[in-house]
Write a structure and sequence with these properties.
By secondary structure, this protein is an all-alpha fold. It is 71% helix and 0% strand.
Length: 116
């Protein structure tokens, strides 16, 4: 499979692209809506890790290879890191391991009222 010889038809390819575009639009909208709540260091790390794991090792191997041929492991890494299912797993692990930031805990504590 390559850019010219695809397994899917033109219509199914366009539907998959549309699905990705809709997902991107939803993610961007949620990001913008919650912009004030973004913890920037984790956001940058979660944005960069996909290519740090999925792209960079293959790019380095390609540039170091005298024949410009690389192992299929790099293709698998790239495709695995660029799937929704991998990102859902990472997001789930993030939520399970998430602890509110100090600022969020302080804000929550300041809004608590005591009953008489």
């Amino acid at each position: 499979m390559d850019a010219i010889n695809r397994f899917e038809s033109k219509n199914t390819f366009m539907l998959m692209r549309l699905e990705n575009l809709i997902a991107l639009g939803i993610c961007v909208a949620l990001f913008v809506i919650h912009l004030g709540e973004v913890r920037w260091l984790p956001a940058v790390i979660l944005f960069v890790y996909i290519d740090a794991i999925g792209y960079l090792p293959g790019a380095i191997a390609f540039h170091r290879s005298p024949t410009k041929r690389i192992s299929k492991v790099y293709y698998v890494l790239y495709n695995t890191m660029h799937t929704f299912s991998t990102q859902f797993v990472v997001a789930g692990l993030w939520v399970l391991g998430w602890r509110p930031s100090r600022r969020a805990r302080c804000a929550a504590a300041s809004t608590v009222t005591t009953r008489h």
